Amino acid sequence: DLTKESFKQIKATDDDVQAFLTLNEEAALKRAAEIDKNGIAEDQLLAGIPLAVKDNIVTKGLRTTAASKILGNFTPVYDATVIEKMNQAGFINVGKTNMDEFAMGSSTENSGFKKTKNPWDLTRVPGGSSGGSAAAVAAGDVLAAFGTDTGGSIRQPASFNGIVGMKPTYGRVSRWGIIAFGSSFDQVGWLSNNVKDNAILMQAISGLDKHDMTSANQEVPNWAANLDKASVKGLKIAVPEEYTSDAIDDDVREVIQAALKHFESLGATVDTVSLPHTKYGVSAYYILASSEASSNLQRYDGIRYGFRADDVKNLDDVYVRTRTEGFGDEVKRRIMLGTFSLSAGFYDAYFNKAAKVRRLIADDFNKVFKDYDVILGATDASTAFKIGDKVTDPTKMYLNDALTIPVNMAGLPAMSLPAGFSKKDGMPVGLQIIGKPFDEQTVYDAGYVFE
Ligand code: GLN
């Protein structure tokens, strides 16, 4: 019944919202019927729960495109580790959600296939790159959806859609079977309606995986069972001035200030601190992430996967025509930027310098975490913007992620949760809670006080 309800809601909303690229209706209903018939094993905590999957996570036998034409007809022969784990837990995959092509973007307008709308206001973007997942949750299609976050792609759409989005510590979740963008930044996580659901689902996908050598050998706590509102009493909160400055819209700042007051009223202390290298984050990130992307995307050559251009003359022509026709503008822009930054004559001036900035940004966080338990601020400087507002100006779009990118540079866990609504446009505003490495518990606990 749950699965049927989910498809009913998708049919009622998705003509407008356009959150999904591929629906998995037949297989999902079949699996739900099997679970009804055979019953649930004791460890199948999520048996029969319909959820959605971002389309850069490979699913065996189900088309996986990363919203790129170059993978338009790609059907994987294996499941990502996170899907395998969720299958064991008994979940039902209702379908694959729209995103910015290869997760490059902040509005889902860079999808090679369609534009997803924000369910709160169809003239606005749902954010990105996990915009389809966020919109599917906000539209009530599913209770939660998978996202990935390289520079903010779980937290910013969560903020724009008034839902919870958690990017765990780098290494917490296996990246095996995630279509790679910036491998030293990418992490999988969940977009959900509330903190508790998020914690339950995160536990189900976390842990060491022999297929991903960057996955961490760290114990996975039962975050949901440990959730504790009382632990906010005495919590030491740091608020970076860079996260509440004039660069943040007034209507957003007002909601964040009210949230900080709420924490104080519960017995937390709130101090202003500085993360001085924040202002270099966006520039350094676009060099590093694009460099990694230019390397990761070499594999789309027209031979190994998906799409191949027609009427080609020779092998070079296969590569050039396939990539020219298969990739969108933003992806090409990143490949060129990344290739340039890594090239022999410019490596020291760009890639190497950006890597040093990354270290400084991580050190900023380390210093603050010597004295504080969590760092709080806005997730995004604005509420969801209008479709078309930024897509023609890449720098404007890039600057949108100034408050989420530093967290990926340092590999920290961070969550966005709905903290209120803008007085200006009535749209939801997200509060960002950043934690110490592998201390997802404190992040979840702090967010839990809003429920
Ligand atoms: N918006 C950022 C970018 O375009 C981050 C995207 C992401 O986290 N996948 O790279």
Automatic annotation (TrEMBL):
The source organism is Limosilactobacillus coleohominis
Lineage, top-rank taxon, reads Bacteria
| Keyword ATP-binding applies | yes
* Subunit field text: Heterotrimer of A, B and C subunits.
Q: Which residues form the Amidase domain?
A: 1-443
Q: What is the lineage of its organism?
A: Bacteria, Bacillati, Bacillota, Bacilli, Lactobacillales
Q: What is this protein called?
A: Glutamyl-tRNA(Gln) amidotransferase subunit A
Q: What is its EC number?
A: 6.3.5.7
Broad EC category: ligase
Q: Show the GO MF annotations.
A: glutaminyl-tRNA synthase (glutamine-hydrolyzing) activity
- Work out whether the entry's keyword set contains Nucleotide-binding: yes
